[in-house]
Amino acid sequence: MPSSISYNFFEKHFGEPPALALLQQTGLLNAPKDNALKILDHACGMGLIASVIHEATDIDRRFPPAEIICGDISSNAIRATEVRIEQCGWKGVTANVIDAQDSKFPDNTFTHVLCSAGYALMPRPDVALKDSVRILRLAGSLGFTAWSGVPGWVEDVNVALARLGAPMCAKPPVTEGWLDPIFIRSQVEATPGLDLNTLKIKPFSVDCRFACAQEWTDIAVGLLGVITANWTENQKTEFLAKIMPELRTVLEGKHGVGKPFGIKLDFIIVTANKKSD
Ligand SMILES: C[S@@+](CC[C@H](N)C(=O)[O-])C[C@H]1O[C@@H](n2cnc3c(N)ncnc32)[C@H](O)[C@@H]1O
């Protein structure tokens, strides 16, 4: 898990904006007050979607009360989400270890199945999509975000790694095809049970500005786990501590010392309803 400073930054700047756009696109923000909402957030991480729902709606004052289940394959993520649920005092929110590829919920359970930046990291996103639609109620909403293209921080990190002679990270460890919006569309269209007349796939970008290289490298330490995911212990011993200083040198060479610059992340926001019969 990244440090809380890093995590909070990534959540606020790279996580919340597309998550809010996802909630808007599913219609969840304007759901009629008396609809009984039963929401599943797959690959919840540290509870981003539950947090944005609470910030953007009066979910705790609905009748009948809404239910949110946060699921993630990582027990660490679930423990962190449980702490957050407790600290924030969210009502009707629970967290459980759930593999989105085999959720084990009965058919037709949820009004909404959501997933922010999660399907791409699963070995079988197609299987997870199929299971997500299976557990949706008739006419229920599927909604997810996915990275579109390689995130804007990757190129500079790769330059730094090459200069160190370290293994390249090249791109986040997504499943083949899952940075390509055309491929992702084809996967959604091939998922049984969706009403493709309701399918919306919209681009969404976040362009985050930094005052100087160090401001970004202090945050980017939170990416070290992703960058070194496939490294050996020896490689970590040799290179880990050198990555951020080298990245700072790369960025200062490119943008100037003490000069501002931006990092852009492109997403797609995908929503569709399950067929109603
Ligand atoms: C990039 S994080 C996104 C977290 C959160 N949704 C957010 O937007 O902040 C991806 C998450 O997917 C989870 N994950 C990976 N494979 C999964 C699977 N098969 N089922 C459920 N969660 C999975 C990881 O544990 C991680 O927490």
Automatic annotation (TrEMBL):
Known InterPro entries for this protein?
Answer: Methyltransf_25 (IPR041698), SAM-dependent_MTases_sf (IPR029063)
**What positions does the domain Methyltransferase occupy?**
39-138
- Pfam families, A to Z: Methyltransf_25
Taxonomic superkingdom: Eukaryota
Write down what this protein is called.
Methyltransferase domain-containing protein
Q: Which organism is it from?
A: Piloderma croceum (strain F 1598)
